Structure to design on (824 residues):
């Protein structure tokens, strides 16, 4: 992509009233635009990152045998009444309104729709287990929405639901989901801790995946030696329940949350299956959430420098940023185009800064804000020996390299 | 994909109250599930078709220089008040409700959000033209929602918006959009007519893309010899305005609609650009919509037989359906698995019917309902000579073919 036609421009200042680091950096870099508090638009750069995150999640879900579906955001009242959550004070996060054929609510989670859907197709033990996921926008009537992409009124969500014949099968799948989640966060460049958090009606604990950072909303008691982490909300005691030593206190961003729901939702709609003996048995259920937009915000929070964002290869909107430096513009431009063509033809996603009329400093400041992992500067200084300057942003190291070597390296 | 684990089952009967052909067939085939009138869930088969349609649209949008963005569905009131459409009686299709930081409405179109977004980044003639599109769910408070995917309360929409410095530039882009739309419908297997329809505030006419069929909501006056088509809503006279002959009356499904909006929305927010002479000039705008879910419904309406759906290669959820027939189950099963492995490894999307305990008739009836374009039956009759039965659903023709020939043909 030529930067001169890329929609969205970098900005020196974040908009007034935007207090979160992630939204400030993402708006300044031209990744997102603020529509209202907790409501953002994705510009081409931001949408590419969001798609990369969603694709990683999709691959890991398919790898644990889950199938992708897409449920509506517009929910009728009836299934929410069946579970008692339509007028539950705890569910006041749901936007509700009237309409033809209504009333309706906007989905902030999908147990109420997925459970009767799966019930339609499951009769016997032979039809279980079932694991379905979707990637879709959800809506929450948040009272305060000041954390940028970390707490939106509209946000991207991957929700997986699994259905099982017994506790052993649910436990086994829950463990596979934890492993898949670890893969997802690793691939997104996040060090996420598996943290015990408060449970629900069915089990005492749920598990959260928490990225330790000062900008998070949660406090975690962390025992590094026992690899045992608990959300402060579930324990009063800072001592590790395993080794007894005092634990570190860390401020976390919750990027994922998984629950064993048991029969909480299946019972509400009388969802049973027939076992080998022909007896009706309750179906057990688990649910597993990750917010792709929140992951995007979390990466921006923990992966940046004073100058701007710093994307891992797996998420970057483009892998390579090509820039020019110096006065012999025609010669430099030709070399940039050659590089652009060679890399693009090899399937490498390249952003080439071909914007006219800017100073070297302005080009560099924008490249720092955007934060692509590989940067190539085509400049007068090295061009006579057919060399370019290569910078790996992860290593913050710049080296003059022969043109062909850079092309060869980045083609991989 | 092994059909025994594919989520979703075919059904002999469509649910009561579902009157539209498209929803009946898609529900019976296990592609979608009805949540409420005008609200559907996509099961794995249906989501694969929807994704194929969206990908075709995406490719054709990128080919005309449009960049993909993603705007929210949750809209604040203010931009809709600026254009006068918040309490406009014509906009009563908008779901509106209160919330923290609200009131809010759900997007049924996005001029109100895209115009101020583009305004932020466009200053001079050098920044124009701009063309942005998104693929996203939209919401309409429809009074009657009885047409399945053809008129949903929540539906998938691709909306493209283009911004121009003058009428010539808008006209040229409008023509490119018409060409792109023709490509899209051709690739989706739809014969869509370009039809003059009623315009808006700015231009007398807009253009609709109409698929002629009895199940459509629109009536088109069509002159085949002049290739001139008009929606009945814009003309009273059945005579062709070009040749004067009486025209055919056709009932159409509108699958796309494009408008020259002119300054209708840019003027509302005082969106101007500076021309070469340094003068402020109004920005002109066009908008171009296609509903991927409606395209899916339209294909189901026009591409089916008495037995079920019939997908074109470009949209089919899987290209190939492998089935078994006969008594020597073990031998047949091994051959099916061999075929499945060979084709899957070559990147062909295959559905293999490995469900136990069904009769040959039941397998065939389900395959007819699902309607994949290529069918291979591994049966006793031909297996001794290493042949299988190949059926091209488009040609409705079945031929015994050597195993290797079938593999070679479908690998392409």
């Amino acid at each position: 992509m030529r930067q001169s036609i890329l929609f969205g421009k970098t900005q020196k200042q974040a908009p007034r009233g935007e207090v979160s680091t992630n939204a400030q950096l993402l708006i300044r870099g031209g990744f997102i635009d603020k529509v209202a508090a907790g409501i953002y638009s994705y510009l081409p750069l931001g949408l590419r990152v969001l798609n990369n995150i969603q694709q990683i999640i999709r691959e890991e879900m398919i790898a644990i045998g889950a199938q992708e579906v897409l449920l509506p955001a517009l929910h009728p009242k009836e299934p929410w009444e069946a579970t008692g959550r339509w007028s539950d004070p705890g569910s006041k996060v749901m936007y509700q309104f009237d309409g033809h054929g209504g009333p309706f609510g906007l989905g902030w989670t999908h147990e109420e729709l997925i459970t009767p859907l799966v019930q339609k197709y499951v009769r016997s033990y032979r039809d279980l287990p079932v694991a379905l996921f979707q990637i879709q926008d959800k809506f929450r009537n948040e009272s305060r929405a000041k954390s940028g992409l970390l707490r939106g009124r509209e946000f991207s969500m991957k929700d997986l639901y699994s259905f099982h014949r017994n506790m052993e099968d649910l436990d086994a799948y829950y463990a596979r989901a934890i492993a898949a989640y670890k893969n997802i966060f690793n691939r997104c460049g996040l060090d996420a801790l598996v943290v015990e958090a408060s449970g629900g009606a069915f089990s005492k604990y749920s598990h959260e995946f928490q990225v330790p950072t000062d900008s998070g909303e949660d406090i975690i008691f962390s025992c590094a030696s026992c690899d045992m982490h608990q959300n402060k909300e579930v324990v009063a005691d800072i001592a590790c329940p395993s080794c007894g030593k005092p634990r570190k206190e860390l401020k976390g961003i919750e990027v994922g949350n998984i629950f064993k729901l048991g029969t909480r939702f299946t019972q509400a709609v009388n969802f049973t299956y027939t076992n080998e003996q022909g007896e009706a048995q309750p179906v057990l259920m688990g649910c597993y959430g990750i917010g792709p937009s929140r992951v995007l915000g979390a990466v921006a929070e923990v992966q940046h420098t004073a100058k701007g964002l710093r994307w891992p290869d797996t998420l970057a909107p483009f892998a390579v940023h090509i820039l020019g430096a110096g006065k012999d513009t025609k010669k430099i431009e030709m070399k940039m185009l050659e590089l652009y063509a060679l890399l693009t033809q090899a399937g490498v996603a390249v952003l080439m800064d071909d914007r006219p009329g800017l100073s070297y400093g302005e080009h560099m400041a924008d490249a720092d804000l955007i934060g692509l992992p590989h940067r190539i500067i085509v400049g007068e200084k090295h061009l006579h020996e057919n060399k370019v300057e290569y910078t790996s942003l992860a290593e913050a190291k710049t080296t003059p390299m022969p043109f062909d070597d850079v092309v060869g390296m980045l083609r991989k």
